[in-house]
Structure formats: structure tokens, C-alpha cells
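Whiteboard transcription, Tuesday session. T.W. wrote the C-alpha cells on the left side:
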């Protein structure tokens, strides 16, 4: 089992310590340690750990995991740790299907001995020590952490190390020292545009725990819905949610569930814009008279709170007071994004107020609003956080900026003395490949030139799952597995950036997340069966051959390309809703083409695999056609099916030319490239992912090293 893991991996501690104020005194000792270690950011990892720990030293042999596996908690303990160990054992059972005794063992007899030194904060804080060390030998395992946060992380690392072996299940001998690079590693879920049921929230918290993410940012109100029960202002949920909201007990349950997993919950109530749903019950808050209805469309809308009325602040004072008690976290998110100002422009009273107070424009009016809002948030014991639009030098340095419009605002905030987190580059709804998110570093761009003091204000980042095109069924597949690449960016050293290594580990993590109850793989399967209806096995296989090469359109093009304007009532049952945002099959096909061309098209095995793939594509449309006649939802993708077959035929022709080392006439290339330009366009909001790779083959078939090689 240890074969292939003999390589020693050491990561630099330096980046991690930049954010650890308490331990900076040990820097000298660590510098000493660095002299005898080698940075290994670019090396292929031998273990499927994600996020990659700060340091990993492989040992000899392995620890067997069988039905005698047991855990003992020593040192400081608390009910959360006991629940954590039981959850760990259940997860281990899920991974191995070996029945385990869930009762804790005596310390002398345990396979896994845990020692936690002391408690963490009752209400989890930003920047608490999350470090742990894990030592696995053939005789047993020791997990040591200063407080429960590190213990919980260490248990997750152990679970990633467990794998099938030649004689059962085992964990390779290893010594791991680990701590996060950034203290704020978040995932935002928008429960407003589509209501996201509690069990979906919970399983995503499980996924966050597995990836060591520690902040759940909950976007709870927007134009399309107000999702929390307010006892003080019950018309918020009664009239603003279609009955889809979380009760206060639900919220408390989620917060407890998250805390058990070392995750803070930061609520967001977006204001003064993105707030139509508030006005259905309380139109007096708005800048124009009602009545208002819940918004069903997507986009930026005119309704905004009236920042000039004292009654607005009285309402917010009471509302925030109620929510501040419900949500224990230190941070309270007030949104602040995308106020278009049209209601303000149109109101005589607001224009008069602005003149009387010397407020020059709408941006200044929003700054005035935030200046009134911030002391209210503070009065209720919270620290205000908002999207980068709230950045204004008039606000106290206690506020935190969440940068979504560009990375520059993060550095600008840090320079002015504000803390910030990065979300620009981490928008999961834009459909980027994991590699593109992975390349985004909170400390790059303008942030790279900040002083160390300023850099400390950059707390980390958050991925964002906006919910225009997600519901309970497909949301997991929009978050995972790509979110794991962002989790690694925020936990691991900046030097850990080898994309091939990340993808290799991501594939493993993706499979394992399903054992945690996430449904990103299985929901695709379920949705495809709905789309196919009563298809024959052959037809279903043909549908899969097509859809595994498709992705939805990217960025913000989904609305523009929609056949009819989508709303919150539009069913999400189409191929575009089912296919993953990053096609693993498409990525692997691209890698195979690159490998073939890099070997001057002399790699016979790669060539044979490409030929098999092209032949299957070439025949696929005929196999799918009968089903496309019967199913409305398959028919929508019929053009893409013809395109895939055309691509297969083109690929076969390119391979023929390459194997004969005989370039086709110039007119062939011109025709193929013209077709390729057509195939690159979206149809039915679907992109055909292998097109650029086939273009490379067409070019290889008409010149270059492949045609010269013998
Ligand atoms: C945002 O995406 N409007 C924060």
C-alpha cells in the first residue's frame, strides 16, 4: 500500500503564519524548520488530500481499518467532540461499509487517540486556531489539536486517507501538520431566489466540513423572497415568501448543526436594494408607494428602501435587533449591492432631502444610508459586512467588504484600513471550470503590493451560489465538486497550485462527497432519466454520450439565450439544468487530445482511444434520434446531438489524415474550421465542450509536428 506514497511532501508554513497573530512569535523556530524542508507545491501529491495540508511526511507501512477500529477522546472534551467522533465513525462506516462500535474506547485500547488541549470560543470567531497534527503509524493514530476546531479538521483529513487496500481498508503511515492559510473560507448560498430546503443546507454544510470550509454565508432575502420568520414583523415572511421560509427554530438548528462542524453562520439581509419582498408586507419602507408583489423575474429592479425616512431606521433597528439575537455570529451582512437608484430619482421628497442635506448623488445617498445603518448593527453587538458597494471612507474601520465586482476593491479596502474577503472569481453560478477558480488568489493582483499589515486585513474568500438557476434538485451539482478547488485555494499554501494534481484529487473528493449525502452526481442521473422518460437502455446510453460532452452557457448569458424569459416559476428540468457546469468527460477528452498531439500524434494508444470515441460520437445521433422524436426535453438538444456526430466524423477524418501523414487539401481545412466556428456557438443554451480539442486535431492534421513525424 505504501508503494507510490514514499515521496515526502513538505509545504511552506510561511503563508499560514502571516494570518496567525498568536503564533507569529514562533516564526524563528519555523524558519529553522524550513531550512531542512523543501517546498513541494509543484509536486504531484501521492495522497488524495484536499485541501492539501501544510506539511505531509509519508512514513512506512499502513494502519489497518477493520471492525476493531475505535476512538478515544482525551484532554479537553465536550459534547460537540463526542458528537464529532460519532459522526466520524458513521462517515468511516459509510466509506468502508464495515460495522463499527460507535462508543468511545479507553485511551489505552483506541486505534485513534485524540488529544484536544482546551475549548474554542463559545461563539466561533474569525482567526481562532484551527491547527491540528495527525500521526498515523501501523500501530495506531494520534490526533492532537489545541481546540475542537482543529480536532474536527483532523478527523476529516483522516477520512480522506482511508482507502481500499489489498487486504481490506487502510490508512498509509503519515505525519501531517496542518493549519489554514486564511481564517475566512466561506460558501454563500442564496435561499431567496429559489428556496433551498433545510436538508439541502445541511448536506452542503457536511460538504463544507469535508473540505474544511468554516463560514456559511446565508443570503436570506432578495426581491424574490424573504426567507426567515420574523416575530416582530411577521408580514415579511407571511407575504414575502410564498410560504417558503425558515422558522426561527429551523435557523437555530442550522446554526447548531454548523457549529458542530466548525462552521460559522453569517446571515445576509440585502438592503437597501434587492428588497422587493420586504415591501409586499411593509410598503412604507420603500421609496415609492406600493402595492408591491414578490418579484418573479431575474435581474436588478427599482424598488429600494427609503433612506430619508426615520421610520426606515426604526424598522431596521427593531428588525436587526431581533435577527442579531437569532444569529450569534459576530458578523451581520447588510448586502448593499446593485442599487439602481431609479426610485430615488423619481421621488420628489427624496430629491428634496438630498438637496437639503447636500447629498450629491445616489452613491452618496447610499453612503448616508450605510452611515445610519452601521451604528444600528453595532448597537446590536454586530460587525457590519457588505458587498463592495458599501465601501466608503465615512464608515468606521470595523466594517468588512466582500469584493464581488473586482479584486481591486479588496486591495482598496485593505489600504483604507478595512477588512475584506474575496468573492470576485469565486462565483459558482458563472459556470467556470474549477481550474479557473483555483487560479484566483485573494493575495494576487493589487493585493500583492499591499504591506504585510494591510494584507492581514484580507481575511480570505467565499464562493457564491446564486440561485436563479438552481433548486433543491440540482444545487449540489452547481456547487460541487468545483467548490472544493476554492476550498483548497483558501486553506492551502499559495504554492499549492498544480492544476493536474488538483483535478486528480477533485475526482476522488467528488465521489466521496456522495457518501456524505451530497447529490451532485446522482441528481444528474435522476434528471436525465426524467428527460429520457421510458427510453430503451440503448437510447439512454446515447443520451448520456451526448450530455456528458455538454455544459450550460457561461457567465451571465443564461438570460439572454433563454427561449422565453425565465422566472422563479420556470421548471428546471431541461438538459441545461441537468448537465454539470464542468464536464469531467469533456476535460478528459481535451487532455487525451493534448497528450496525443504532444507525442507528435505517434502515441498509438491515445490515437486508438480517440478513434473509438469519434466513432461512438459519429454514430450517436442515429441512436438518439428515436428518443428525440418522443421526448420534448431530448428534442431540445437534438441539434447538439447532430453536432456531436459531425464532430465525431470530423475527428475520424483528421485521424485518418494523421495516420497516413497525408494532409487533406486546403479546402478541407477551410471547411472544417468554418464548421467548427458554428459548433462553438451555443444551441439550446448548451455548449459542446470537445470542439476546441477537435480543432487542435484538425490543425494537427494539416501541418505541424504531427504531419512531419514518421
Ligand atoms: C452580487 O452579485 N450582486 C453581490
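and on the right, the sequence the group agreed on:
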Amino acid at each position: 500500500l505504501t508503494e507510490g506514497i514514499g515521496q515526502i511532501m513538505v509545504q511552506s508554513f510561511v503563508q499560514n503564519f502571516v494570518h496567525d497573530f498568536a503564533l507569529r512569535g514562533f516564526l524563528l523556530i519555523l524558519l529553522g524548520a524550513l531550512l531542512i524542508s523543501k517546498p513541494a507545491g509543484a509536486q504531484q501529491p501521492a495522497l488524495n488530500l484536499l485541501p492539501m495540508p501544510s506539511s505531509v511526511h509519508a512514513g512506512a507501512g499502513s494502519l489497518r481499518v477493520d471492525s476493531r477500529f475505535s476512538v478515544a477522546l482525551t484532554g479537553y472534551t465536550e459534547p460537540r467532540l463526542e458528537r464529532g467522533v460519532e459522526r466520524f465513525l458513521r462517515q468511516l462506516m459509510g466509506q468502508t461499509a464495515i460495522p463499527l462500535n460507535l462508543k468511545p474506547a479507553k485511551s489505552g485500547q483506541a486505534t485513534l487517540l485524540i488529544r484536544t488541549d482546551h475549548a474554542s470560543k463559545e461563539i466561533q470567531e474569525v482567526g481562532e486556531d484551527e491547527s491540528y497534527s495527525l500521526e498515523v503509524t501501523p500501530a495506531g493514530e494520534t490526533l492532537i489539536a489545541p481546540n475542537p476546531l482543529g480536532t474536527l479538521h483532523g478527523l476529516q483529513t483522516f477520512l480522506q486517507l482511508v482507502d481500499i487496500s489489498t487486504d481490506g481498508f487502510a490508512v498509509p503511515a503519515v505525519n501531517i501538520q496542518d493549519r489554514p492559510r486564511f481564517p475566512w473560507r466561506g460558501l454563500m448560498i442564496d435561499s431567496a431566489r429559489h428556496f433551498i430546503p433545510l436538508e439541502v443546507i445541511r448536506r452542503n454544510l457536511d460538504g463544507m466540513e469535508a473540505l474544511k470550509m468554516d463560514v456559511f454565508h446565508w443570503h436570506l432575502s432578495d426581491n424574490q423572497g424573504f426567507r426567515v420568520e420574523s416575530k416582530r414583523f411577521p408580514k415579511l415572511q407571511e407575504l414575502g415568501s410564498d410560504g417558503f421560509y425558515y422558522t426561527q427554530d429551523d435557523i437555530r438548528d442550522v446554526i447548531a448543526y454548523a457549529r458542530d462542524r466548525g462552521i460559522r453562520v453569517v446571515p445576509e439581509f440585502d438592503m437597501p436594494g434587492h428588497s422587493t419582498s420586504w415591501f409586499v408586507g411593509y410598503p412604507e419602507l420603500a421609496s415609492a408607494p406600493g402595492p408591491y408583489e414578490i418579484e418573479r423575474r431575474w435581474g436588478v429592479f427599482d424598488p429600494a428602501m427609503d433612506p430619508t425616512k426615520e421610520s426606515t431606521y426604526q424598522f431596521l433597528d427593531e428588525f436587526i435587533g431581533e435577527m442579531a439575537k437569532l444569529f450569534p455570529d459576530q458578523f451581520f451582512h447588510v448586502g448593499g449591492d446593485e442599487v439602481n437608484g431609479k426610485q430615488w430619482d423619481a421621488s420628489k421628497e427624496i430629491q428634496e432631502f438630498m438637496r437639503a442635506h447636500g447629498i450629491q448623488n445616489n452613491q452618496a445617498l447610499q453612503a448616508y444610508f450605510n452611515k445610519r445603518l452601521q451604528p444600528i448593527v453595532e448597537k446590536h453587538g454586530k460587525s457590519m459586512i457588505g458587498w463592495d458597494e458599501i465601501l466608503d471612507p465615512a464608515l468606521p474601520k470595523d466594517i468588512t467588504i466582500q469584493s464581488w465586482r473586482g479584486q481591486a476593491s479588496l486591495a482598496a479596502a485593505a489600504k483604507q484600513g478595512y477588512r475584506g474577503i474575496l468573492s470576485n472569481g469565486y462565483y459558482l453560478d458563472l459556470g467556470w471550470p474549477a481550474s479557473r477558480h483555483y487560479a484566483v488568489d485573494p493575495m494576487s493582483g493589487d493585493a500583492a503590493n499591499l504591506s504585510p499589515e494591510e494584507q492581514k486585513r484580507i481575511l480570505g474568500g467565499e464562493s457564491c451560489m446564486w440561485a436563479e438557476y438552481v433548486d433543491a434538485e440540482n444545487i449540489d451539482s452547481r456547487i460541487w465538486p468545483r467548490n472544493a478547488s476554492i476550498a483548497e485555494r483558501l486553506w492551502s499554501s499559495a504554492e499549492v497550485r498544480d492544476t493536474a494534481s488538483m483535478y486528480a484529487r477533485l475526482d476522488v473528493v467528488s465521489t466521496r462527497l456522495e457518501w456524505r449525502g451530497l447529490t451532485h452526481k446522482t441528481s444528474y442521473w435522476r434528471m436525465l432519466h426524467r428527460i429520457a422518460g421510458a427510453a430503451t437502455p440503448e437510447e439512454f446510453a446515447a443520451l448520456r454520450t451526448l450530455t456528458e460532452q455538454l455544459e450550460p452557457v457561461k457567465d451571465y448569458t443564461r438570460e439572454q439565450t433563454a427561449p422565453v424569459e425565465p422566472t422563479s416559476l420556470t421548471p428546471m428540468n431541461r438538459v441545461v439544468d441537468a448537465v454539470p457546469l464542468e464536464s469531467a468527460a469533456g476535460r478528459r477528452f481535451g487532455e487525451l487530445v493534448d497528450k496525443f498531439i504532444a507525442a507528435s500524434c505517434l502515441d498509438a494508444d491515445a490515437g486508438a482511444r480517440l478513434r473509438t470515441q469519434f466513432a461512438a460520437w459519429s454514430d450517436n445521433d442515429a441512436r438518439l434520434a428515436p428518443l428525440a422524436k418522443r421526448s420534448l426535453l431530448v428534442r431540445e438538444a437534438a441539434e447538439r446531438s447532430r453536432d456531436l456526430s459531425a464532430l465525431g466524423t470530423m475527428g475520424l477524418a483528421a485521424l485518418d489524415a494523421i495516420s497516413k501523414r497525408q494532409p487533406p487539401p486546403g479546402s478541407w481545412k477551410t471547411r472544417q474550421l468554418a464548421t467548427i466556428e458554428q459548433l462553438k456557438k451555443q444551441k439550446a443554451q448548451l455548449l459542446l465542450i470537445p470542439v476546441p480539442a477537435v480543432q487542435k486535431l484538425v490543425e494537427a492534421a494539416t501541418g505541424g509536428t504531427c504531419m512531419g513525424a514518421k
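Someone added at the bottom: Residues 337-338, 387, 404 surround acetamide (CB under 6 Å).
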